[in-house]
Design goal:
single chain, about 230 residues, alpha/beta, five-stranded parallel beta sheet, about 10% strand
Length: about 230
């Protein structure tokens, strides 16, 4: 395990936290989709494989097509796998597009604590429905700013979206901590001088946040006390 610096490269504490949304804060339940795939005699995951191929997914994430158009693109990609049954292909596409989601309470709590110390910016490859999704999650007040690929017209790992996020945080890139579940996104942030933290579980985020993971009055484990 590679230790994550608690300070920016210039030796000062991180001046902002930039955090991904999906697979860090928000998690989808794809079990209903997997059940439909099994019923159709398809290997589990084939719908997401087609849906998240760049040629299908990127137009949605850049705000160029609607979720309904994305479903149609998924269905077109699936048609050959379901014997031309377009109704079944659309059902699978809709099951993915409408998959229920939840927020990880532990991660949300950690980020809320961090925000009491430094600005927090969400940086996400998302659709134009992001505001509605955050409202459903009860997270409209989680961050100081939200940088969405669909609004900005640029997606991770393009360096431009990281610069936009640092600007919204009001600090230079080299003073930003960037958290994401994809290594390619981390690498792009690090190339700009940010500190990257690859997320796999809440412990990764807690370690990356260091003292920012603790609220007022909480003593960090191992911290010295006066006496």
């Amino acid at each position: 395990m590679i230790p994550i610096p608690e300070k920016a490269p210039d030796g000062r504490p991180h001046g902002a936290v930039l955090c991904d949304l999906d697979n860090v804060i928000r998690f989808y339940d794809t079990a209903p989709l997997a059940a439909l795939e099994r019923e159709a005699g398809l290997p589990e995951g084939v719908t997401t494989e087609i849906a998240y191929a760049p040629e299908t997914d990127l137009p949605l994430l850049l705000g160029r097509i609607t979720p309904d158009a994305w479903v149609e693109a998924i269905a077109a990609g699936l048609a050959g796998r379901v014997g031309g049954d377009t109704d079944l292909a659309r059902t699978l596409g809709r099951a993915l597009a409408g998959a229920p989601f939840r927020a990880d309470a532990e991660v949300v709590a950690l980020l809320r604590r961090a925000r009491t110390h430094v600005p927090l910016v969400l940086v996400t490859n998302a659709t134009l429905q992001l505001d509605e999704d955050l409202a459903l999650l009860g997270l409209t007040d989680l961050a100081d700013a939200v940088v969405s690929s669909a609004v900005e017209g640029v997606a991770k790992p393009d360096p431009a979206i990281y610069r936009i996020a640092a600007g919204r945080a009001g600090v230079p890139p080299e003073r930003c901590l960037f958290v994401d579940d994809r290594q390619e996104n981390i690498d792009a942030a690090v190339a700009l001088g940010m500190t990257g933290a690859l997320y796999r579980e809440p412990a990764d985020l807690r370690r990356a946040l260091g003292p920012y993971a603790y609220g007022a009055g909480e003593r960090r484990p191992g911290a010295r006390t006066e006496g």
